[in-house]
Automatic annotation (TrEMBL), chain A:
It comes from the Bacteria. Coiled coil: none annotated. This is Tripartite tricarboxylate transporter TctB family protein. Residues 23-166 form the DUF1468 domain. It holds the Pfam family TctB. The chain crosses the membrane at residues 21-38, 58-75, 96-127, 139-163. InterPro entries: DUF1468. Keywords: Membrane, Transmembrane, Transmembrane helix.
From TrEMBL, chain B:
It comes from the Bacteria. PANTHER family: TRICARBOXYLIC TRANSPORT PROTEIN (PTHR35342:SF5). Pfam families: TctA. This is Tripartite tricarboxylate transporter permease. The chain crosses the membrane at residues 6-23, 30-51, 57-80, 107-130, 136-157, 202-222, 256-279, 353-376, 388-406, 466-485. It comes from Acuticoccus mangrovi. Residues 19-437 form the DUF112 domain.
């Protein structure tokens, strides 16, 4: 049995090699960040463990696992063709759009540009329109729901749950 | 024990707790029935709404949601070939073919009945095992507790779905994200990058909402065009004869015990239980070829096991503070947020509370059976709810929940960040369960290790004098080494086979 086959048998075969290469690199960078920050922690006085020991240990484990993930991905070459799901069309554009909209929604409230009620009505209406791929009927239902939920939700959270929402 | 349980039943049947159990079970079934919504999502979203509630009512509500959501998944698994929750995947293999050939009512009746039996069998184990286990756990010192948490993390990572390496990676990432902030033992700030918002670390709720809810919203948006037409449920009765249940008795009991046992193992969710029970039922069946084509045995095994898993998973949670499944990690977080210290002393300090949870669990199973039997035809229509209308509203609920925690937007950003992390992990097939459990258990792991080392002059090596701790460490090591040993064994077997051939 070849060494690569043995490694593949032990650690399993990578089914998502492209993603795994990215995952390994991101995890390794994150572990390096942990080590860098842990190095800034002063040594312990009375505590035998100190505050830096666990972050260092976890960073080393992460580096080791990232290396294994990378090796698994590289051993999986030649990489299979990208997955194609024929059952339905995947919509990364809609997913990116909803994330961008969510960031904008939180951002305008954080910056104090809009209060919770107005921002929520806008987010709900636009979010529904985007997820419904701008089909007219759903857009209109979404708009009505947005107004009801925006006003009703604000009243519910502030008057019933006493939450001090962004104004 | 029995007196405690009866007392708890007396409490749970009083109007307010009963209504919470009824509401929780109904909401759970609703969420379980809608593909794209999960029990974890519902429970995480409910936590902020329970801040002002009595702790017992809050946890009773969440345990009922847990029971309902695992059961609700069978509806879409049977009628839509789309598991409402991951634990119903195995039910699709036989439930849908059976429904497609015109036996939808029988498939649903078998699933609902098996869910009830699974839940009740696990309930018996929950009642019988909890007290002795928690008594045993109270004898643990810091090293035993540290070794047990470590074992739990290793088990979670290695038995969770997907590869062991990715499971371990998820667990380690969860621990890493729990580290920033003030270290309570020496007052040192660490890994905060100079951000004062991080002085208290990442709060549990935004992390839970991000990983379980926000990431699911992104996944659902990604798959927004995934639609299917459900099979219609006819007017036939959903109550089966005693003869049918006797025919499936052995399978029901076996699958329930498998589900309970796997539930007790830390971190292993209901989907693994139903897979193991399904595989066992097939290997012991007189007609294994029927599995996957609409076999009644397959449906019974899958549904009995996934519901039994819920009860089994509650055992380590209430006796030792170790989550038996990813959803239990959320429940553990809810306990902490409600100022109830989980762990071996939970029974000693909050015995009535724990028995109320056990009683709520048992009642939720019975209510689940009643609700689903009566209203499954109506519930089946829930699967057609437009996700485009639901997802934005769910996100707004997440935002309010995170913001309400400390009245600061930072927690909302944290939720968004962990939503993206959860989505990226799901895309790379890194399991989310070990991540959340690692995040929840990291604090306990470090605290117990530190306490153990402070109690002795020998430092970490004093653990070698503690047999129970050593046993836990040995199990962890064996779990990690097993794939290597398996590889070596198969290598020698191959060599021997070649020698025999030559």
């Amino acid at each position: 049995m070849r060494a690569s086959e043995r490694l593949a048998r032990i650690f399993g075969t990578s089914h998502t090699p492209r993603g795994d290469v990215g995952l390994a690199l991101v995890v390794a960078a994150f572990a390096a960040l942990l080590l860098w920050q842990a190095a800034k922690v002063p040594p312990p006085f009375f505590d035998p463990l100190g505050s830096a020991a666990v972050p260092r240990g976890v960073a080393v484990v992460l580096l080791l696992l990232a290396a294994i993930v990378l090796v698994r991905a590289l051993l999986a070459r030649p990489w299979p063709a990208l997955e194609r799901d024929t059952g339905y069309r995947r919509r990364p554009d809609v997913a990116c759009g909803i994330v961008a909209l969510a960031v904008a929604y939180v951002g305008v409230m954080a910056a104090g540009v809009l209060g919770f009620m107005v921002a929520t009505i806008l987010f709900l209406a636009l979010g529904t329109a985007l997820l419904a791929t701008f089909r007219r009927r759903q857009v209109l239902i979404g708009l009505a729901l947005a107004v009801v939920l925006g006003i009703g939700g604000t009243l519910l959270f502030t008057e019933f749950f006493f939450i001090d929402l962004p104004r | 024990m029995l007196a405690d349980l009866l007392g708890a039943f007396g409490y749970i049947f009083s109007p307010v707790p009963f209504l919470w159990v009824l509401l929780g079970t109904t909401l759970g079934i609703f969420v379980g029935a809608v593909p794209g919504l999960t029990g974890g999502m519902l429970i995480a979203l409910s936590i902020p709404l329970t801040f002002t509630m009595n702790s017992t009512h809050a946890l009773v509500l969440m345990v009922s949601m847990y029971v309902g959501s695992v059961s609700g998944g069978l509806i879409s698994a049977t009628l839509l070939k789309m598991p409402g929750t991951p634990s119903s995947v195995m039910t699709t293999f036989d439930g849908f073919p059976m429904a497609a050939r015109g036996e939808a009512e029988r498939a649903l009746a078998l699933s609902i009945g098996a869910s009830l039996v699974g839940g009740l069998v696990a309930g018996v184990f929950l009642v019988v095992l909890s007290v002795p286990l928690s008594r045993w756990a109270t004898t643990f010192g810091p090293f035993e507790y540290f070794a047990m948490v470590l074992m739990a993390l290793v088990l979670i990572a290695s038995i969770s779905q997907g590869s062991m390496v990715k499971g371990l990676l998820a667990g380690a990432l969860g621990i890493a994200f729990a580290l920033p902030g003030l270290n309570p033992s020496d007052g040192q700030l660490r890994l905060t990058f100079g951000w004062h918002e991080l002085d208290g670390g990442f709060a549990l709720l935004p992390v839970l909402l991000g990983v379980f809810v926000m990431s699911q919203i992104i996944v659902d948006a990604f798959d927004i065009e995934k639609n299917a037409t459900p099979i219609k449920v006819g007017g036939a009765s959903l109550l089966l004869s005693g003869r049918t249940w006797r025919q499936h008795g052995t399978n029901l009991l076996r699958s329930s015990v498998i589900g309970t046992w796997i539930g007790i193992l830390p971190g292993v969710g209901a989907s693994i239980s139903s897979m193991v029970a399904y595989a066992t039922a097939r290997s012991m069946s007189k007609t294994p070829e029927a599995f996957g084509t609409g076999s009644e045995e397959g449906i019974v095994a899958s549904e009995a096991a996934n519901n039994a898993n819920v009860g089994g998973a509650l055992i380590p949670l209430i006796t030792m503070g170790i989550p038996g499944s990813p959803i239990d990690a959320i429940l553990l977080g809810a306990l902490i947020l409600h100022n109830i210290q989980p762990g071996p002393l939970l029974f000693v300090n909050n015995g009535d509370f724990v028995w109320a949870l056990v009683a709520a669990y048992l009642l939720a199973n019975v209510l689940m059976f009643a609700i689903m039997t009566v209203s499954v035809r109506w519930l089946a229509r829930l699967m057609l709810i437009d996700r485009a209308l639901m997802l934005p509203a769910i996100f707004v609920a997440c935002v309010v929940g995170c913001y309400a925690l400390h009245n600061r937007i930072f927690d909302v950003w944290v939720m968004l960040f962990f939503g993206l992390v959860g989505f990226a992990m799901a895309r790379c097939r890194v399991p989310l369960g070990p991540f959340v459990i690692g995040f929840v258990l990291a604090g306990i792991l470090e605290e117990e290790l530190r306490s153990g080392m402070q109690l002795t002059a020998d430092g970490f090596w004093a653990i070698l004098d503690r047999p129970i701790a050593l046993a836990f460490l040995a199990v962890s090591a064996l779990t990690l080494v097993w794939p290597f040993a398996q590889s070596a064994l198969s290598k020698s077997r191959n060599r021997r086979a070649k020698e025999t051939l030559s």
